[in-house]
């Protein structure tokens, strides 16, 4: 018998299940998503489950189950099932779907913390970290910065100066799988029943970190590339594993580009440390681009606001507004189409 409390099951989720018409059936948490089926961890073990037609064709792509979701399913055979209902999600990590303007993709759900992993080689990029952080904070998930491969030869003073302005916004850990004490420090921050998702670029060592945190090999890892000196990309899917005596980890494949799916572009000023200046602007709706009395631009002119920070803010702001307006227009079109369908249904057929 599996104790689902260790996988994050709680009273709030139980109350949500009681509101479902399928409350008498089994419930479990999705650990792996395959192309056509889902691995679901339940009290009686792991089940290979498929979706009902209503769920498969009645939901948008980003509403389909993802790793971390809690579902209700009907069992058949000894280890198979049909997913009938999806319990309400909380703290979902989204990203903009590749090649799309306004579609978003669910990466993981019911997430408490997001470990943003960068390696201490030429992968380190503060602006890339801010991109992940913006999306994470938007969903009410606590960001944590993991600077991995600390056994490499790197300029620690330079790195610490780079992250100095961010240190008050998120915890920072320097880690190496060859330095067990650094892994233990991270492990101690993950409580029992807590869910942590690992995100970052390919080759930064996410899977090796997960294995070290679990104290045993639970995920595949690749050898170091002889041509680049970096770890080879091994994770090809999002996968959930449990740490003995601690919480749950969701590993994700490395991404080259993490597109923002932000519903509140105005929140970027606070996330990117511009709110202290923005509050002093003459106009409340200041865009911080060309308005008179803009305190952000004044800080930029005096040098108190670094040009790189401002440039990244403008870049992310444009991307966030583009997604927001495209999504808003899409919703308007969907509502308009729904009203047309309702009117068609109400029309009486001619005799």
Plain-language structure description:
Helix content is 30%, strand content 21%. It is an alpha/beta fold. The protein has 3 domains: 83 residues, OB fold (Dihydrolipoamide Acetyltransferase, E2P) (Beta Barrel); 159 residues, Rossmann fold (3-Layer(aba) Sandwich); 78 residues, Ribonucleotide Reductase Protein R1, domain 1, CATH 1.10.40. The strands form 3 sheets. It has a 6-stranded mixed β-sheet with strand order 10-9-8-11-13-12. The protein has a 5-stranded mixed barrel with strand order 1-2-3-5-4. Strands 6-7 form a two-stranded antiparallel ribbon. Strand 2 and strand 3 form a beta hairpin. The longest helix has 40 residues. The radius of gyration is 23 Å and the shape is globular. The relative contact order is 0.11. Monomer. Associates with 30S ribosomal subunit, binds 16S rRNA. It comes from Chryseobacterium flavum. Its EC number is 3.6.1.-. Belongs to the TRAFAC class YlqF/YawG GTPase family. RsgA subfamily.
Fold topology:
Blueprint: H1 11-18, E1 26-33, E2 38-42, E3 45-51, H2 53-58, E4 70-76, E5 80-86, E6 93-96, E7 104-108, E8 113-119, H3 126-138, E9 142-148, H4 156-162, E10 172-174, H5 180-187, E11 195-200, H6 206-214, E12 239-242, E13 248-251, H7 268-271, H8 275-278, H9 295-302, H10 307-346
Short description:
This protein has 3 domains: 4-86, Nucleic acid-binding proteins (OB fold (Dihydrolipoamide Acetyltransferase, E2P)), CATH 2.40.50.140; 93-251, Rossmann fold (3-Layer(aba) Sandwich); 265-342, Ribonucleotide Reductase Protein R1, domain 1. The chain contains 10 helices and 13 strands. The chain has helices at residues 11-18, 53-58, 126-138, 156-162, 180-187, 206-214, 268-271, 275-278, 295-302, 307-346, and strands at 26-33, 38-42, 45-51, 70-76, 80-86, 93-96, 104-108, 113-119, 142-148, 172-174, 195-200, 239-242, 248-251.
């Amino acid at each position: 018998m599996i104790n689902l409390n260790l996988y994050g099951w709680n009273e709030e989720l139980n109350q949500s299940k009681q509101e479902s018409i399928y409350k008498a059936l089994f419930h479990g948490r999705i650990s792996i998503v395959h192309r056509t089926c889902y691995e679901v961890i339940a009290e009686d073990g792991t089940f290979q489950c498929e979706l009902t037609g209503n769920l498969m064709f009645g939901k948008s792509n980003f509403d389909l189950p993802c790793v971390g979701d809690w579902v209700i399913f009907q069992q058949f055979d000894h280890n198979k099932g049909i997913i009938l209902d999806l319990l309400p999600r909380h703290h979902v990590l989204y990203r903009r779907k590749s090649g799309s303007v306004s579609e978003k993709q669910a990466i993981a759900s019911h997430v408490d913390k997001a470990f943003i992993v960068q390696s201490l080689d030429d992968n380190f990029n503060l602006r890339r970290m801010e991109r992940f952080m913006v999306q994470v904070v938007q969903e009410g998930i606590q960001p944590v910065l993991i600077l991995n491969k600390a056994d490499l030869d790197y300029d620690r003073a330079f790195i610490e100066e780079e992250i100095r302005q961010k240190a008050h916004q998120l915890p920072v850990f320097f880690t190496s799988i060859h330095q067990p004490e650094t892994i233990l420090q991270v492990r101690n921050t993950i409580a029992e029943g807590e869910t942590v998702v690992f995100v970052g670029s390919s080759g930064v060592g996410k899977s090796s970190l997960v294995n070290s945190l679990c104290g045993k090999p639970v995920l595949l890892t690749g050898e170091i590339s002889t041509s680049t000196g970096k770890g080879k990309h091994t994770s090809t899917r999002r996968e959930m594993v449990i740490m003995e005596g601690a919480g749950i980890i969701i590993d994700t494949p490395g991404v080259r580009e993490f597109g923002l799916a932000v519903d509140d572009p105005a929140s970027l000023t606070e996330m990117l440390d511009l709110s202290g200046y923005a509050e002093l602007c003459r106009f409340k709706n200041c865009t911080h681009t060309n308005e008179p009395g803009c305190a952000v631009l004044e800080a930029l002119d005096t040098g108190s606001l670094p040009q790189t920070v401002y440039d990244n803010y403008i870049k992310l702001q444009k991307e966030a507004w583009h997604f927001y307006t495209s999504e808003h227009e899409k919703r308007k079109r969907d509502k308009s189409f729904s009203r047309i369908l309702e009117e068609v249904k109400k029309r009486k057929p001619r005799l």
